[in-house]
Design a protein that fits this description.
Elements (H helix, E strand, L loop, with lengths): L31 E4 L4 H12 L4 E4 L5 H7 L4 E3 L12 E4 L8 H8 L3 E4 H9 L3 E6 L4 H14 L5 E8 L4 E4 L8 E5 L14 E4 L7 H4 L2 H13 L6 E5 L3 H12 L3 E6 L6 E9 L2 E12 L2 E11 L4 H16 L4 H8 L10 E6 L2 E6 L4 H15 L4 E5 L4 H15 L4 E4 L16 H4 L6 E3 L2 H11 L5 E5 L7 H14 L1
Parallel strand pairs: 1-2, 1-4, 2-3, 4-5, 6-9, 6-10, 7-9, 10-11, 11-12, 12-13, 17-21, 18-19, 18-21, 19-20
Antiparallel strand pairs: 7-8, 13-14, 14-15, 16-17
Length: 493
């Protein structure tokens, strides 16, 4: 087969052009030290390695609930980070967030230790598993979690590594009791182009939109990176893509032209797995599902009802990908569709923090304009005619600069949105880039505020039946419990 996707050559900051790297052997890593072990992705890999019997240590800038839970697994964790922590170590794992002057990374290089990117370490934990990798500008955490739950309910005993704690599993990472030939579900982070390392048998792409422009430079290079991700599959790999998204649709077309099997899902008439007749009742959402596709010589056709206890049409679409993965994993369609309904959510994806006097407080990780819009649409559905109030924290100066108007448009779907200062994460400030780029975009529902002012404004306006949401990838999540506590105090007065 002539693989046109494999022949793509790009000038990305990372030289991730074909041929794609093979996975490292887990047994060759020796003692592994994680720099920044408390991060969602890093902690997941550390958990997997411990379960596989690898000697693991780690460090972070400060203590957190993540470091506490990792210590319970017997991992030695140091805070803050220091060169003195690199003792008796064979391999050091870092993420893109770790800067070149980090003292532990500097020490590791001085000692000539093996230094792996987080993606290389995750690939090593996959070992001999059959891999399902989920990529997308947004929706990949929920979708990879849904696939993990679906395969678990089907009895497949999957391994998984996702970006958030899955309800029912109470963890973001788990190793199968039988790795040889078992399924491994991985959330494939596109932010630095490293997601070509997983070599998935099944690649799921929820959408392809411009993001992480600080790394890629242009939207075109974002699209080409996804093409290379799909190109990293073996020749008999299968792409499952959401045809409703223009970027994913284009990728599906190019992948099919390159000779791969492609299964599309969505509301579009030409989707292989189609969603229709969606209805909502509070947090419960249901749809009709129709499927008609062929893989190899096997033909699949049928209809069924999909019911989820998580709101939003976007989650119904995510569930179609999970349903399709169940079929490709060798299970019958009816069992796969039933197993998807076992999904009860994942942390910080429209997570209910509390209900006081019939005022519900939800928390969501959304930090891209499309994600914010989908989260607020779910909030509107649950509010069912009552008011929706939002506390939003932009994530990254570069993302705010790129999408200020789009954020404003998404936030304007609430009755009142309050925008906090930008959460800088891994970036230095950009001159002239502040939250006011969003709040001054011309939408009367969107206002800039400091945290205390925003909380007071929301609390003074919220009435029974209303929905309050804290939204963003930064520390805005801490205000959810605070809102619940203040609502409780107000209710006692």
């Amino acid at each position: 087969m002539t693989n046109n996707l494999m022949n793509l050559q790009l000038e990305l900051p990372h030289p991730l052009t074909p041929p794609f790297p093979e996975r490292l052997s887990l047994g060759s890593l020796g003692k592994v030290h994680f720099v920044g072990i408390g991060g969602a992705g890093m902690s997941a890999i550390a958990r997997l390695m411990v379960q596989a019997g690898v000697n693991v240590s780690g460090s972070d800038r400060a203590e957190s609930s993540a470091t506490d839970s990792l210590r319970e697994l017997g991992i030695e964790i140091s805070t803050p980070q220091s060169a003195e922590n690199i003792v008796g170590v064979d391999t050091v794992v870092v993420s893109t967030a770790i800067t070149a002057d980090n003292p532990e990374l500097v020490k590791a290089r001085e000692l000539g230790l093996r230094v792996l990117h987080r993606s290389e370490a995750l690939a090593a934990t996959m070992d001999t598993s059959r891999v399902i990798a989920v990529a997308g500008t947004h929706g990949k955490t929920t979708t990879s979690s849904m696939i993990s739950v679906t395969l678990g309910a089907l009895g497949a005993d999957p391994s998984f590594a996702v970006g958030s704690t899955i309800a029912g599993y109470d963890t973001n990472a788990r190793l199968s009791s039988c790795q040889q030939g078992s399924w491994f579900v991985a959330e494939a982070d596109e932010s630095d182009g490293s997601f070509v390392r997983y070599r998935p048998e099944i690649a799921v792409v929820t959408n392809v939109e411009p993001d992480h422009i600080d790394f890629y430079g242009t939207a075109d290079k974002v699209h080409e990176a996804f093409a290379r991700f799909v190109g990293s599959m073996p020749d008999d790999g299968v792409l499952i893509a959401c045809i409703d998204d223009a970027g994913a649709r284009d990728l599906a077309s190019r992948t099919s032209d390159a000779g791969y099997s492609v299964i599309t899902y969505g509301e579009s008439e030409d989707a292989h797995v189609r969603l229709s007749e969606t209805t909502s009742d509070g947090v419960v959402c249901s749809s009709q599902v129709t499927w008609d596709f062929t893989v190899g010589e096997q033909e699949y056709q049928g209809t069924g009802q999909l019911v989820l206890n998580v709101p939003g049409k976007h989650n119904q679409l995510n569930a179609l990908a999970a349903f399709t993965c169940g079929i490709l994993a060798g299970y019958d369609a009816d069992s796969s569709l039933k197993s998807v309904t076992q999904f009860q959510g994942t942390d910080r994806r429209f997570t209910l923090r509390g209900v006081i006097n019939d005022i519900r407080v939800f928390d969501d990780y959304a930090h891209h304009p499309t994600e914010v819009l989908r989260a607020l649409e779910a909030g509107r559905t649950v509010a069912a005619g009552h008011s929706l109030y939002v506390l939003f924290q932009p994530h990254l100066f570069s993302r705010t600069q790129e999408f200020a108007k789009e954020f404003a448009q998404a936030l304007s779907t609430a009755d009142r949105s309050y925008v906090l200062d930008i959460y800088p994460a891994r970036e230095l400030p950009i001159e002239g880039v502040t939250s006011e780029l969003i709040t001054e975009a011309g939408f009367s529902e969107v206002h800039y505020a400091q945290p205390e002012e925003a909380l007071e404004q929301i609390l003074s306006q919220a009435r029974p039946g209303d929905v309050i949401m804290t939204v963003g990838a930064g520390d805005v999540t801490s205000y959810g419990p605070e809102l619940v506590e203040r609502l409780l105090k107000r209710a006692k007065v």
